[in-house]
Write a structure and sequence with these properties.
This protein is 68% helix and 3% strand. By secondary structure, it is mostly helical. It has one domain (26-42, 49-431). The protein has a three-stranded antiparallel β-sheet with strand order 1-2-3. Strand 2 (105-111) and strand 3 form a beta hairpin. Helix 1 packs antiparallel against helix 15 and helix 3 packs across helix 5 (118-134). The two termini are 18 Å apart.
């Protein structure tokens, strides 16, 4: 996939422990920040296993599993991906009978003192199955590969949406887009995923909005026709556009009334209808957002200190250990703490991008991009909702938020990236 440079960079010939450290250090650093924040948010009367200690155990297990995965070839994981995908999907379907409701969604399975969320591990198996579909070994990548990949991502996302867990379902869109980018799928097929989004332009039902939608659709069809697409495929794309806009326009009301739960509708309305009214007049979602913004803005440069934040110590911030942990960080550690967090996550992404571009095969590159897509979706949605830039959907920050299923899943993804990195490293070192 990649050519060997005549003068390799330090990173390409670095010892394995040094290359692993460049990925492990930012991930473990973010985890330690999360454990530190958890240790300051626990009341003295709390009994049982403390959350910070639980998170430490989850982190240790995740690191060990990630290192174990890094020692195995990617071909092994892709070969078992179909069976794991089907079994995990069956587990998600079984939540209707064996699952536990929490926060309005039936997404967890109680295992003694712990809770397991099958939708988290489903992300990893979806990434692996997407790499299998998008990078076939004995055939070229075409429209069929694109449809198979889209269906493989849509099926678990649909079942997770019915739990209902809108935030986790949205992550699968990011995973699919990232895997498509990392594979050899023609970019004109990737643009098909934007068809539902473009159909939203016609939602107001005005003549002007329909003209804008039609002009955009015609321009896109002309562009791919200029690229040499067949007339049959162009006709199929036109039908797909028309059917999609019809489904979007006619399906919004039933979706709003029957699929979305009251608290989800409240979150969307609270995001759209901003108000400066008294706190007593705010909806729950708007109240949560206001408390989050107050916490972020009151942190200052160095923060108010661990466990000393007014909003966090008095319980004003909702779900402050999971979905809104960044608000706690900004209040207690301030702007400096937030910049350290951003620096670590940026370093993690930069190293992952490097290993994706130097991967030995297209499948490995697709897996690395898929893991980055998972992390990026979690990061941007979580930061967006805590800052009021996106509706509140309930999604954890990678490596930072409290939760064993999420943390271990992130380290499993890190292990897959390390597996690809070790394979490319061996090939480069042998060449020298």
């Amino acid at each position: 996939m990649t050519e060997i440079a005549e003068q390799p960079s330090w990173l390409e010939v670095a010892p394995s422990w040094r290359k692993e450290a460049l990925l492990l250090v930012p991930a473990v650093g973010i985890t330690l920040i999360g454990i530190y924040l958890l240790s300051g948010s626990e009341p003295d009367y709390l009994s049982g296993l403390r959350p910070w200690l639980k998170q430490s155990l989850f982190g240790a297990c995740g690191i060990l599993l990630g290192l174990l995965i890094s020692r195995l070839p990617m071909t092994f994981f892709i070969s078992i991906a179909p069976a794991c995908y089907v079994l995990n999907l069956a587990l998600i379907l079984s939540l209707k009978w064996i699952g536990t409701e929490r926060g309005g969604a039936v997404s967890w399975i109680d295992i003694g003192p712990f809770r397991f969320q099958p939708s988290e591990t489903m992300k990893i198996f979806t990434i692996l199955i997407l790499a299998r579909f998008l990078c076939p070994l004995k055939s070229s990548v075409g429209f069929r590969s694109f449809l198979e990949a889209a269906l493989a991502a849509a099926v678990p996302a649909a079942f997770i949406l019915l739990q209902p867990d809108l935030g986790t379902a949205m992550v699968f869109v990011g995973i699919l887009m990232a895997c498509l980018h990392g594979s050899r799928v023609p970019r004109r097929y990737i643009s098909l995923l934007l068809v539902p989004l473009w159909a939203c332009v016609a939602l107001p039902g005005e003549v002007l909005t329909w003209i804008i939608w039609g002009a955009g659709m015609a321009l896109w069809l002309l562009m791919i026709a200029w690229k040499g697409e067949s007339k049959t495929r162009l006709a199929l794309f036109l039908v797909a556009h028309v059917l999609t806009v019809a489904l979007v326009v006619q399906g919004v009301k039933p979706l709003w009334n029957h699929l979305l739960k009251p608290h989800q509708r409240d979150r969307l309305v609270g995001f759209i209808e901003r108000t400066d009214s008294d706190t007593r007049d705010l909806s729950p979602a708007a109240y949560h957002l206001r408390q989050s913004l107050i916490a972020i803005s009151s942190g200052g440069f160095l923060g108010q200190g661990l466990g000393q934040g007014l909003q966090s110590s008095h319980g004003f911030i909702p779900m402050m250990r999971t979905d809104f942990i960044f608000s706690v960080l900004a209040e207690e550690l301030g702007f400096a703490g937030a910049m350290i967090l951003f620096g670590l996550i940026i370093l993690l992404f930069l190293e992952s991008i490097h290993h994706a571009s130097h991967a030995d095969t297209w499948r490995e590159s697709t897996v690395v991009f898929g893991v980055m897509g998972m992390w990026a979706a979690h990061t941007f949605v979580n930061l967006g909702m805590t800052m009021g830039l996106m509706p509140i959907t309930g999604i954890p920050f990678p490596f930072l938020s409290y939760g064993g299923s999420s943390l271990i899943t992130n380290y499993l993804g890190l292990g897959l990236i390390l597996s690809a990195a070790r394979r490319s490293r061996v090939k480069v070192e042998q060449a020298f």
